[in-house]
Amino acid sequence: MELRYSNFQLEYNKHDIVVHPLGLHLKKGDRIGIIGESGAGKSTLVKGLFGNISGNFYHSGNVDVEGKVRDIANCRSLFHRWWGRKVSFVFQEPVSSLAEQYTIRQQLQHVLEYKGTSSEKMKEQVQYYLQLACFPLERQNAYAKELSGGENQRACIALAMAAQPEILIADEPTTSLDLIKQKKIIETLKNILKQYPDLILIFVTHSLEILQELFEDNGWIYIFYRGFLFEKFHLSQIQKKVHHPYTRQLFYNFLNDYRPITLHFSFQESMPAVEQSKLIEPCPYLSQCSLYAFMQKEKIRTSCSVQKPKLVKFGEQQEVACHFLPFFETMKENACVLPFVLETPQKNQVLLQVNDLSVGYEQNPNVLKVSDYMIYHKQHVGILGETGSGKTTLAKVFSLLNPYGIEKSGKIWRYFEGKLQEEDCIEMPQHYHNLNILTWQHPWEVFPPNETMETILKDACQIWARLWNKKENRKEQKERIQYVLNQLGFEKNFSLQVSPQNYSGGQRKRLLLARSFLACGYPNEEDKKIPRILYLDEPLSGIDAVNKSKVLHCIQNAGKVLNATLVVITHDPRVAYYLCQEFIFMKQGEIIEAGSREKILSYSSTLNPHPYVMELLQATPSLNGFHSSFFS
User: What angle do CA 449, 451, 453 make, to 5 degrees?
Assistant: First the structure.
């Protein structure tokens, strides 16, 4: 199959351009990676390319299908026939792709029957595709609601590959996976690409390191920002100095494990002024561009504020849209990494203590076992482990959100009315739950689908005001919402007038964090003396590298302002490294290792570390030989 798109554009309601005009050439064996921050239009682009998009979206442009040029607006029926035959999708949120009433095995059988697989070969084919996606065979008779997020995503990959597509579109397929399984999925996809060399793979991600490992310097990278294609380059050009300022910002965030970065520029030669244009159409990256800020400071005239740059070819394997492309080779830059400072926990004040805690269900009585653990005031605890290890279940029990049908034994003491009291001996008032807030991993578990985001965030503000008898007028409420959104990387003109499904996955995740912070009263400091615990379940999953640094900073700042204890659930050791003083490693429902950050970081020189802990730390991604801080 060979497709050539020209002047492809997507509009919403015929007046909002979501994807600005671009060209794209797809041929057998192509590997294409699409990178950009949340809301850049990545997922909308790949869905729109094959008509898999609903609502008031309108296509324009042409597509050359095997030498025949068609108006893309008239290709919807053609693209529909390709779905499940020539084109397969792996979406970002797996539960939305799986049928609740069927087991994973039954759903896979439906796909294989559709492809004409005989009943004699059915069992063999089911096992083949499950193993291809690293899905545990013993779980094939489970329903989606009984599986962890990572297991559901692997089931989706198996279903997509069972369709035997010519084009595979993967939209953040590794987002919900822990690092060890993420690495295995990448290895699986690499093996698939070797087995099917003609397969066209379009991989949407926030992570440049994943693309580099998956494509092995044999693929093309497209950098998107707000629907604009800023840069296109072959992976072999990644070491080049000539890159768009936005691309360079992404590189530095990857290299420094998502810490906040400030870029400083200088030129070896005098910088000539760029010609002004009569057209007033500014560069979409203008307000965020460090290079433009440098030009303004040095009083150098540029066209950035009046003319949108066009893609310009630079060599054989690179195209860049920036007015300063000719001067990049004479430019020097320094990256200032902003440090994170963690407060010292107050170990004289215990907020939570458990002894011989056992949690389970009737069908599975051994979900969780914790012999003895304490959480102190102002302590930041990171709970790490693979998907399905019991991290979220532990946080739910800690935060009083006991799952339905749960059976508990053991003792839990909670700090209540100035002292530590046994949970079973006291009746918790409603406001106590407001001191133990859990931010869920998946936004769709919390957001009502028919409400606008503005209504959802205002309701969060009212939760705080109602429980603590606070008075907050509309102006104060609006200012508090805007402050929190700004802290999480949203701009002032960001619209809240639509329902949650109209945002990208990364945007929904940050809005979910905003809801939790607003419900806690952030950034008000009036309740600073009241000890509270914030539980954050995978707070950075699905968020791009640039916004990850902003979210990390906001979480730290919220913990400090609210005088809160943080319990961070994550499968990424880098997140725990920057947010937490204490680490807990879990596997199969048990705590296998616990200790301070300093103790864990010294494991590379320890004689007897736990094998799983070392495996998880060593699976932490690196880029071009630059390892994470664990091994620097």
Answer: 100
Distance between start and end Cα atoms, the chain: 45
pLDDT at 528: 61
pTM of the model: 0.80
143 - beta bridge partners? 103
Which residue is it, tokens 């520029």? Answer: 265
CA atoms of 559 and 343, how far apart (whole Å): 10
Q: What is the rounded average pLDDT of the residues 495-500?
A: 91
Residues 6+ apart with CB under 8 A from 19: 8, 9, 10, 41, 44, 45, 48, 227
**pLDDT tens profile 207-224:** 888 888 898 878 999 999
Instruction: Kindly tell me if the per-residue pLDDT of 142 is higher than 80.
Output: yes
Task: Give which of 513, 501, 500 is closest to 454, Cα–Cα.
Answer: 500
**Rounded to 5°, angle at Cα 37 from 155 and 244:** 130
DSSP secondary structure letters along 392-429: HHHHHHHTT-PPTT-EEEEEEEEEETTEEEEGGGS---
The whole-angstrom separation of Cα 94 and Cα 387 is 14
Q: Which own/partner contact pairs does 420-429 have at CB distance under 8 Å and 24+ positions apart?
A: 420/350, 420/353, 428/400
Question: What torsion do the CA atoms of 292, 295, 301, 305 make, to the nearest 10 degrees?
Answer: 20
Residue 604 in contact with residue 631, Cβ under 8 Å?
A: yes
Beta bridge partners of 4: 25, 64
Q: Which of 156, 148, 193, 167 is nearest to 51 (CA)?
A: 167
